[in-house]
Amino acid sequence: MADTMLRGGEYLITETNCDDVFTPEDFSDEQKQMGETTEQFIENEIVPHLEEIDQQNFDLVVKGLKQCGDLGLLMMDAPEEYGGLELDKASSMLVVEKIAYGGSFSVVYSCHSGIGTLPLIYYGTKEQKDKYLEKIITGEWCAAYCLTEPGSGSDALGAQASAVLSEDGKHYILNGTKQFITNGGFANLFTVFAKIDKQHFTAFLVEKSFEGLVIGAEEKKLGIKGSSTTQVILDNCKVPVENLLGEKGKGHKIAFNVLNIGRFKLGAGVCGGSKLALATGIKYANERKQFNTPIAKFGAISEKIADLTAKIYASESLVYRLAGLLDDKLETVEKGIEGYYDEYLKGIEEYAAECGISKVFCSEVLAKTVDEVVQIHGGYGFVADYPAERYYRDERINRIFEGTNEINRLLITGMILKKAMKGELPLQQQAMKAFESLMTPSFEELDESILFVREKELIKNLKTLFLILAGAGVQKYMDKLANEQEILMASADLAIQIFALESSVLRAEKIYNTVSERKRGLLEAAVKIFAFDAAEEAATAARKAAFYVEEGDNLTMILSGVRRFTKYDATGLLTAKRTLAGAACEEEKYLF
Q: What's the rounded mean pLDDT across residues 519-544?
């Protein structure tokens, strides 16, 4: 456990010690073995059948889920008293990362073991768990989650599905249509959200065999074709009253808490997808020759490989730093106490902003990765004979899953500002100090003997810049800032880059003295490359926010601050890129 436990969002105003972050290098032998077992399973049992799976041979998918159950991969979050493993989040995120190598199957797995199973674990009664949980965590039954409707996606609480108590009081009668339901075609148990008496948003456990449950046709999708996506139609569906999940009218708690978990796990999954796609791109670049030279040797291609390696390093660093934050927080919740899962979920909700950051940043790194891998393949990347084409199609959904990236950006800034307004984060006081520094020039010389001192100075300055812009936004709009989505999204971009860059630097600093001289050079290169990109991204976001919020002299002053606080000396950047790309091409894989 970290010596100092930061609250959610506190990274923006506090300097973190590298010894307080969890990194992939901290995995225990047991965790590494779990990751290796998962990777071997995917390689041996799923990858050989990817084409058949993408042709919707769901028998193979269901078989794969059962095999996951046999290996214990479906029971990581389940309590031990029900046969589960109740593992830490770092372990479950590592497994999700390795499952990602299985293409569409990873979507089936993630839905089943995540949003399909967790509502029952966290909110189910003893009787409900006795009846269903063993079937779910062994893979005997498949699970699905029914929240979205044709007219309500991001506005989950705008759902129109209804539930009415039957005259004899033994059943709720559900009516409505659920849209885009993953695993819909073969699931046995559905977590369905409906409004009792058109008013009380509530969750229900609905078996496939229940009268009135109708499964729609398979959607014809752009990607993830090997997963089942259907409508689930509730036509006077009779659900026993004892299958009401949680409390009447409290379905929003289930929906939002489970989505927080889905977001950080999606971050881990797409990180795994990025590593796979990068390795594919590197191998092709080494094999493909033009002008009698492997294209990997050309600067135009090697720069792509270097940039992607650095971004994936940041993605991985961010994901497992978040895993450590969650695990440290959850360790403080005493097992066996009354209301254990309420406290457990509050612990996860504490880092809702960071969960959103994980989802947005990592999914966009994957998007960049697969796009460049197609580009490296040239025309061959556009045909289905090469995996780059499938990577490209499958990637796109990740910026929509678990709340769109736009919604998550709004939530990131909204959660941080909400904490500030509740007095949980002293953002107002820190913003005032930041404004003072804006008007006070700094002539302090950097101590170049300090490891990663330039990057640390950049992180400190970006935090100051975030506080300046957030403070200006609050001062101008007060509680109406929540309606200024363009400002919130620009601020979120700044917060995202800060968390990603700081995670990268802290990881490199923590492991620097434990690795070889060659590995140190690669770490330095990855950090420099990503810091340059992060500074550019942050500058763009900050300039937008400044123009959105201010005008006149105040705008001029803040724009001057943007230039000052996003300044980064990336001397040696080209050498760093060539070093990183050369090593990646030599090993033909993601390096870290």
A: 98
**Active-site residue among 402, 455, 457, 524?**
402
Give the predicted TM-score (pTM) of the model.
Answer: 0.97
Superfamily of domain 423-587: Butyryl-CoA Dehydrogenase, subunit A, domain 3 (1.20.140.10)
What mean pLDDT is predicted for residues 180-184?
Answer: 98
Which pLDDT belongs to residue 154? 82
pLDDT class of 1 with cuts at 50, 70, 90:
low
Tell me which H or E stretch contains 229.
Answer: strand 229-240
The CATH superfamily of 1-403 is Butyryl-CoA Dehydrogenase, subunit A, domain 3 (1.20.140.10)
* 402 catalytic per annotation: yes
- Burial track 495-523 (b if 16+ CB lie within 10 A, e otherwise): bbbbbbbbbbbbbbbbbbeeeeeeebebb
Q: Cβ distance 587 to 275 under 8 Å?
A: no
The alpha carbon dihedral of 178, 179, 184, 190 has a sign of negative
Residue with tokens 């990740």: 398
- The answer to whether 233 touches 216, Cβ cutoff 8 Å, is yes
Model pLDDT, residue 428: 87
Backbone φ and ψ for 77, nearest 5 degrees, come out as: -100, -5
The residue whose two tokens read 């009401």 is 244
Averaged pLDDT of the chain: 96
Question: CATH 1.20.140.10: which residues of the chain?
Answer: 1-403, 423-587
